[in-house]
């Protein structure tokens, strides 16, 4: 029996329609569940047996995302006004999900060809969420976020650089530091309205990589820190072009779609001119956390 | 020489950045920054038409108060930096 569930992440809503076998695996979404949609609905995702009604011979291949070897491979196609995304778990594996969506990604259907329903749904929701929030001043970022003194600190870096480790070291160094999300938080640049100041906030999400940290909470961003491994602990503020490059490579989105890229650029440019981005060369030790904290909280 | 296609010039603070954004440049992972005059020159030649140092020098003398000699030197430097960045052929 198919059931429709609604979720709210970073104050944006989306719906999923699936049967119990799929919904039962989506435990990470529970803190974000709502009974009704009381704001902007980004997308509606339906689990089906056959997602696309257009024959494969009529699909046009747009590109294949081959960013990281250990990340899912995503093939992107167009068929008339529809988008088709085919996802494989790792580089050479067969397709594990096929998603077919309307031009604006607001209506999507997914076929699941893997026993790992949770993985399939997470990938689909993350992609649809990123694509539909890009033009709304939001960035779905690959980062680990630690909260201290009411502010969120985002740690960016390639997979394996030590983002999760750095968050853990902050918790070791500071009793009052806590993890908000360990892999895919949502950052929002909220423009000034009715005399309210501009806000840059970071939100917990259902997507936290290998660490089950699903916290439906948001805090203002204190700073963003790009990590790199080094035999020392040194931190410096980054110039705008460097900050932009790291933010862009840490953000999800269909960068080859001009309107989406324009939106990502606008959000990133606004964010990095409001919040300082730093570059931290560091060891995986507690001192790194102290050095980082001292710099990013230094009042100017 | 010509400008490679698929880049977008975008303002950032008081500089400009050039990012590979189209399908042709989807794997271009360098970040190129340009000051105002370099950005001005790029915008004039990014249509993919042939140009040389002379072309750029003329654009510079037309737009800025600079001698022909200085303009040629600046043009040569700009071309070299663009070539190193991999954005012209």
Count of distinct strands of chain A: 18
If strands are numbered along the chain, what order do they take across the biggest sheet of chain B?
1-2-3
Radius of gyration of chain B: 13 Å
Structural class of chain A: alpha+beta
Order of helices and strands of chain B: EEEHHH
Topology, number of strands of chain B: 3
Number of helices of chain A: 6
Largest sheet of chain A: 9 strands, mixed
What is the distance, rounded to the nearest whole angstrom, between the alpha carbons of the first and last residues of chain A? Answer: 58 Å
User: What's the overall average pLDDT of chain A, rounded?
Assistant: 95
**Structural class computed from helices and strand pairing of chain B:** alpha+beta
Widest β-sheet, arrangement of strands of chain A: 3-1-2-4-9-8-7-6-5
Give the quaternary arrangement of the chains: heterodimer
Give a description of the structure.
The complex is a heterodimer of chains A (300) and B (89). Chain A is α+β, with helices and mostly antiparallel strands and 300 residues long. Chain A folds into two domains: 99 residues, no CATH class; 159 residues, no CATH class. Chain A has six helices and 18 strands. In chain A, helix 3 packs across helix 6. The radius of gyration of chain A is 19 Å and the shape is globular. The relative contact order of chain A is 0.13. The mean pLDDT of chain A is 95. Chain B has 89 residues and is an alpha+beta fold. Chain B has one domain. Chain B is 44% helix and 17% strand. Chain B is built from three helices and three strands; from the N terminus they run βββααα. Chain B has a three-stranded antiparallel sheet. Chain B starts with 6 loop residues before the first strand and ends with a helix. The mean pLDDT of chain B is 93. The chains are: A alpha+beta (300), B alpha+beta (89). At the A-B interface, helix 4 and helix 5 of A face strand 1 and strand 2 of B.
